[in-house]
Design a protein that fits this description.
The chain is mainly α. The chain has 21 helices and no strands.
Amino acid sequence: MIYLILIIYIAIVFLGSLRGASENSKNVEGYFLANRGLGTLALFFTILATNFSAFYFLGFAGAGYRIGYPHYIIMSLGTGFAAISFFLLGTKIWSLGKSNGFITPAELIYNQTGSQYLRWLFASVMLIFTFPYLALQIIGAGYILESITHGTIPYLWGASFLTLFTIAYVWIGGMQSVVKTDLKQGILMIVLMCVAVIVITNQLGGLSTAHQNVYELKPELFSREGTDNAYGPRKWFSMLVFWIFCIPMFPQIFMRFYIAKDLNTLKKSALLYGLIPLFISILPVIIGVLGHLSFPGLIGNETDQILPKMLATHSPEWFAGLVMTGALAAFMSTLDSQLLALSTIFTRDFILPFRKDIDLKQQVSIGRIMVVIFACIGLAIAAQPFDTIDDMGRLAFGGLAILFPVSFFVLRLNGVSAFFSIASIIIGELLLIGFYYQLIPQSYLYGFDSSIIIILTCFGILGIGKMYDRFIKK
């Protein structure tokens, strides 16, 4: 039954992707940006499905198991707050993209600053720090296929299969295929997670009874700080505001701002995005918290598999397969967008400046080749995953968020000199690596999350640069 569900789903997605393989996918704006013609619902679901990925299905459930309900509050509100930056930066990005024909984020930065070095640095950071997040989707797919087939499909084989399938439909239709599959996969993701919570809680005696039983075992899961005081007041503040800086800097999200049909469409989609996470973020966290009743004592990356474990234990095999197919849909909806965004960035920002003779058809061909190469790199990273999905996410998200201060100054404060912009990014990334690998003492954070301290440092560097440009350089 599980194999039949998988085959049917894959067939539906693949056939849908063929609709993207029209003449529109043979030109640059058609292949990379779906001809900038998305309506409100299509834009909203492609942003939602692109952002709520393996980090949502497995990461949220795993964090719910390890930390408890504070993770839901922080992630739902924090993700919702990201809509602020959609209005703040996204509307400006759309306007400039529409009038100048920008396709990649770094093209906009280059146009506004005139610095080719800043362009390459900006694009390089997007490439480098998207890879851990890209690999995270492949890891999630491997975990899921191994779980629902009871090991018949080993982790790496499952990860490889879903990667190859994603390559196939992105190669065929580009953004047209991505958007069409995102709409279906976004709806499927939400519906199946709702039903999964209902089925599992009913098997555990109902939502109230199950929570009472968990509370008796681990009351800290329901406290403000969570398990092991994971979220103190300063960490709460850090994580609530962090997503404002982070989410719009995902290359696949940044490029979504270009493809809205008009400004009103983008604003409506942003409003929906600010509201929906309040509802859907709770679903995997509930399953993760209740996982203590059935699977006590999980540690490390074992916690990231609590969702498939709970489904396999508390629901019929066919239903577990159906929900996990929804999870695979979420993984692919992010992976496809990341592959397309990275291939676009490499083609437009690293090849085109040196080969201006490349025509539009050749750009699409190069983009397709890079989709394959980047997918293989992601698969190589997935072969040796980090301790937890949360660890991989933190590194990727922190590295990308460092680009926000430069983007803000460029789009809203008429920019700052390239020297200070480059310094801001380089110093920020060095600090990130220093804190992540504990080369810099954690005591310097004073209880805040490292990303907030780093972002504030970057803003400070750019502020100094702005004053230098205004009062000294002149």
